[in-house]
Description:
heterodimer; A: 22% strand; elongated; B: mainly alpha
Amino acid sequence: MEIFDNSKDYGFSSTSFEMVRKDTNVxxxxxxxxxxxxxxxxxxFRRFCKxxxxxxxxxxxxxxxxxxxxxxxISPYDVSPTSTYLTxxxxxxxxxxxxxxxxxxxxxxxxxxxxxxNECPADFIAHAVTKINVGDIExxxxxxxYGRNGYIALYNDKVLAPGASDDSLNGFFLNYTDFKVTSxxxxxxKLGLGTKEGQFEEAEMTDYRVRxxxxxxxxxxxxxxxxxxxxxxxxxxxxxSSALITAGISEIEKAKVRVEIKAKETKxxxxxxxxxxxxxxxxxxxxLAGIGFTDANKAAMVTxxxxxxxxxxxxxxxxxxxxxxxxxxxxxxxxxxxxxxxGSNEMVIGQSIMNEYKAKGWCEYDFAVGPSSFVKLSxxxxxxxxxxxxxxxxxxxxxxxxxxxxYKYLGLKKAPTYLLGTDAKGHDLVTKALKSLxxxxxxxxxxxxxxxxxxxxxxxxxxxxxxxxxxxMERFTExxxxxxxxxxxxxxxxxxxxxxxxxxxxLCMTDWIGPAATTRTQFYRFKGREYVLASRTLGASDWRLxxxxxxxxxxxxxxxxxxxxxxxxxxxxxxxxxxxLGLKGVNSFGVLLSENQAYLNSFPALIIFPAIxxxxxxxxxxxxxxxxxxxxxxxxxxxx
Amino acid sequence: xTKYVIKRxxxxxxxxxxxxxxxxxxxxxxxxxxxIGNAEVQYSxxxxxxxxxxxxxxxxxxxGYGERLFRYVDSTGLVHNFYQTPVMVxxxxxxxxxxxxxxxxxxTYIMPNVSAIIIIGHRLxxxxxxxxxxxxxxxxxxxxxxxxxxxxxNTMVDHVISTLVMVFISVPSFVLITFVIWIFAYRxxxxxxxxxxxxxxxxxKFLSYIIPVFVLSFxxxxxxxxxxxxxxxxxxxxxxxxLARTKGLTKRQxxxxxxxxxxxxxxxxxILAEFIGIxxxxxxxxxxxxxxxxxxxxxxxxxxxxxxVLFVDMALFTTISLVAGVILDLSYGFIDPRxxxxxxx
Lengths: 640, 345
């Protein structure tokens, strides 16, 4: 009903009225609000801040996020997946200066084979070894580069039947390279034998005999008896020349000494410590020196040459040959791996590099004079000393054997210190882990946002409309989620190739199911509530009911589940790579973990640090998510 | 309700059918993996595939079937050229084989020429034993801890339990498994470093159950504790429990008769679903601890590109998760009549 009809003239217009309070004498007693009016977001934020653990979670996430973006940017170390620095692979963590004993890039080694000739642990660089403690001699039955002495055990596993004749085959024989024997040269064969027992438990020491074997003029094999069957295990000397005289032979061009061992009813063996042939003539003696042995360990290691010929002191036998009681030394020591890699080490450098250093005025060197002309002028010069020059065919110098400080050679001002060491590719672990974290977080966030967008709409429609719509949509969801995510991911990676983008697509294909299911449940939960009914009674549209009434109520739970999807994505990627099925050759967290998996026992820091980061991330996201849910949906506070 | 149950079951079957069909076709689109073994073994494999309708046996080279898989001249001098049949033809053959012969395919690598169903049969018991042990021990423990934490809400005990649960639920399972194996098997040397072989003594066999059962139950113990605590806390604050107390019930009676029963409503279905999950195997655990179960088989088959075994294994996983889903949905309705799944708006 219109009060005023503007077309009529009442003598006054509607604007000439003024609203006034009638009861001016009455005081308004309403107090002003003490608190400021607040918005939903402000209120949620206030409630979130009340929850200390969630704030802690958020702070940790923020720190990790900031570190993953900033640290790789300022870090001087290259960690690109295509580069490898094998010289500095697997360095231990270093924070303090060397020698401080804690976190100083040193590693303690225990029971490492000791190289008795170079007087340092075998295969370690001597100047980096400190606090060495060499143990007593230990015995082993395995021939080793670093072992000494010991016995060669001729071992016969052929067992005679009871009562069989001993002389049927007379055991086996052993021979060396041919040598020349003359009746006038005072040729003597010395055999050192041993009586150590206990090694071949089921075998027993056996009789042996020694014969000189040679070829007759009609090339039939003949023997000269040197000693008959004996079980005397002391050092033996056999006069070869007198044996020749006895047999009436003046000279044998190609002779061999055979040691034969007797087969018995059990397995048998004989221990030989040394075998030598000597003669009166000094030059001849030098030739003979090669064909015997005084160190059984060394003799056992002599093998056939690459061209198929035999070494002079190669031993050939048709019985089993073991070494027995080789003397080994082991040592415990502290090893400064940084000094070993970046310190002054033997290194071959090219002529052009030396010229470069000369041009920079770091050193003086004259190729015509040689190593003695080297003078180090500046501390910046990587080369510390020159040992030898190498010449090419044209007789010009092409490379030098030097002692060079490696970090200076790389052009660094000081030796690098890797906070948590390096991995198998020589990459700094901290930089690599944080860079991988960045990639993984980016992929996870993108996948989560995309999944949320799809899932929210899908779940809202399915949950709100219910009935047939729900059943059809649920079937589709079930089909997608029924294919295990590992298969889905592997199929996508197989079909689309191995890259981060592919992985993000694969994640999106399965991950939207989660938010969709949560949204659907929330809609089922709230759509029957009275307030929805009330709103519907007032004529609210489906659109309004979904987005204004039901969704805000369910948002807390949905957001919580979505927040957990971010570490979930990192987790899926890590798991699939850990199993060896996922990405390869990119800097992502899963790849990092799976690459370092093999070093768990030897270099635990390589796997512990990434594991801590990923666990920390998961815990923080969980705490953060819980706080967020409580903040967004106060009615659920304290639950779950 | 009966109608709904029947509808759900039929739908689950249809869903399973579609998933398996889809995966079968997807997998057949991947490059064909040739079987290992000498020419005779390969020939017998291809002949069995011809018999099953997946491979064509032609006397001379042909075009239009893609790359030739294998060529063999048998003892009578007949030349065999083997080609893959078109994918859709393979699909039809596959359906026919399953419905008429219950033949799901033959292994190419893991146990060449052995039916995939038999391989699964070999591997299933191990996974089942571990799962049963872990469920039997984790359900009461988890629920017990949850009830305990809820009753002692906001005390030190509750905080400790909740924090531990939070930490252990967050730590990724492969990290947990790796470190448990590393510490207890490699460093301390208390437990075997991998699953016991058939020839190992009984004690080793017994000990090798400890790590898998422990690691598997860890996640579910934490899950049940958290879930039970949350549900019970919510119920404890409800008006009906207050009413129960005001009408004179002791705290014990009120909790046992009212709180616990209501709190169990959402928990029981997940326990039921967990029992169905017994048939499945944990891929990560079984791979890292070399357990010959079906989870490890999955990874093995995937790495070896033994697609037939992979497919059957996957079909098993799919079926398990579908059945578990149906049971979860239905049991909600049975246990709590207020929830009506599938209800319209």
